[in-house]
Amino acid sequence: MMKNLVAFCSLFFALSSFGQDYLTMPTIPAMRQLHHEYIERSLAQIDSLKINRNKLSLKDIANAREQITRMRIDIETNAQLDNNGKYKWLRGVNEILTGFIKGYQAKQITPEQYTELINAYDFSLHLEWSSVSIEPIIKSSSMEVAELLMGNYGLKDNIGLAKSKDYLVFKICEKYPARTFSLLSANPQNRFADSLIIVAGFKYPEELYTYAAAPNALGRKIQAVNHPFIRLVAQLAVTRTGRMYFPFLDNIYKRILPIDSITPYVFNDTSIGYYKLLVKTRIQYAERMQRGDTPLVVNVLTAKLKAKAVEVFINEINGLHDENNEQIRFKRLEGLSPEDLYYLAVLGEDEMYTSSFVSGVYPRIFSSMKIARSDFLLNNLKYDYYKKFIKIAAAYNKLDDFLSRMDKPDAEKLMKNFVSELDQTTSLEDAVDVADSYAVIYNNNLRKLIVKQIQSELNRCVRINAERGTAIYDLLNTIFLSLDYVNNKTNLSEKLGIKSVYSLEVNDLKDSVSGRVIMQQFFYGDKDGAMVFNAFLNKFRSPNWKIIKKSQWVEVSSVKGVPITIYSNLPLDEKLALDEQSQDSLIAYLNTYNLFPTIAIHRGHSYYLNHTIANLPPTAKLILLGSCGGYQKMNEVLETCPDAHIISSKQVGTGIINQGLIDVISEYLRTGRNLNWPELWSNLAIRFGGTAKEKFDDYAPPYKNLGAIFITAYQKRVLGLE
Fold first, then answer.
1. What's the CA gap between 569 and 520, in Å, rounded?
2. What is the mean pLDDT of residues 196-204?
3. Is position 126 within any domain?
């Protein structure tokens, strides 16, 4: 075959060198003139494309045009082609040109591939006319060119198309390995399937597992591959408990962990033993990742570790939140090591109640250590997720305690590392964690240390011209300095070009339809909810307000000053889900009458907060998260209300503080005063002096929600989003 192809190509080039006479276009019948015009239009469009002439010169384009002309002449003068055959090939030539145009515009094909494409099609056209397979052309072509040839109308009947498809699939998988299994599922008999499965299996073991378990041709093909890793995954995939072994795949494959040693835990996966094995393996993997060695399915192990942390431990201690006896409430934590408890904290952050961490997990980390030093703990954990733990400790006012459990130089080094190299990650998560943590650090020496390191990192990024890093550290530096507004005079709104974080105007809070300021409160039907609801109503029994009771909610409206209505669902029996029904009824009413709340208030424990967030009105511009640890949920709130000002508690939320905030905010608005947060917060600090001061200090005003401010500023500066 190859000798015949070489001979053919030699003859082809000899024929192609006849000179200008060979390029004389014969008379084209009127019935085919339009097809030639299509080709000319496509060539003109290629001429007009803005292509870098260093990659595709005018000479290259002219040579390609000459070659296209030669093909057109060959088609018109080929006596073996009838009228339909000539239509077919003229269409094929134009398809190659339009295919390049679309591919180039979509950035799927490079300018350099234009000449490769024209040459390959020229060869393929003459091979097809000689009833010769185009397989060698497909084999030697780039993936993009091969794909255009294989899909071309003129070549659709070539005798080598089936075998050529194997090469095309191979080329696509080679360039886009993530597509391997989906392509092989449609082409399980591909001659390169075994080698493609092995390569993709190591890159995407989760997909390998899924496809190996399927009762189809590809599943059977995977089961038959003779490779130890593929055989291991294929074996697990067809067993009922395979998913329980799968997180340990790397250690099993490398014979570090015998599969039989896992079996006792698999059949009791809610046991402490299975969770401890996950923790032990995660620590081993963390050490390897620090050396640049990423274990197989480490993400699967981490996901399983998180799932078991929540399912087996956190849900139980959360569920006993009303239990005053800590020995009863936290009995499920007995037998867990400091490392086990640490992973409950860092992986269960979103689900864990404030009291579960503050009163349960955190103190038990150190009470279960022989030497209660935090640096010993981090060393044992290979510093896995240490930035996340610092963020959590800061949010719950435990960072000073954590740092005090190590020598001062080590504590300083840890905090410097905490804020260093934030530009080296692909996400903003670490930078947001740093911003959120700084907002709740009250130790002035520690703040100065962090700002100094931020400025050092900023200088580094400027020096090496790292644009992303410069943006991250410049924003953090600006935001952190803004907290000391008196001395630094840093106005975030002016400096960062974002909407004011210092104030909300009354007029901006008025509903555009009714002209009222509409507030919506979410109450819940536990015993505390009923008590807080009654306290709320009692505060508004005055000549300035009137209360109207409905079957599912109450309306508290101002009778003097700026029109305001506070809609609050009744805290009906939670056990029968009647409180949720009352919320749904109120939401339906507001929607029916086009009443759009611009202020939303959560009045309930932290375990109700996710339900409130799921039902927040997108029109809300001010949100009060009055539960414990509401500060942890700000990013979720911003997904629904991206421009909202948020007031939240960093640790313990209390009814007295929440009601005080509602009283002051509603009175400011009723009397026509804008919500100037620094001024309002100073007044509240006086009001909540004495025994209430510590609880009030746990609340963060909108201009101190640094993580949210950072995200908004970064999106505007780097991504150009408003």
1. 8
2. 96
3. yes
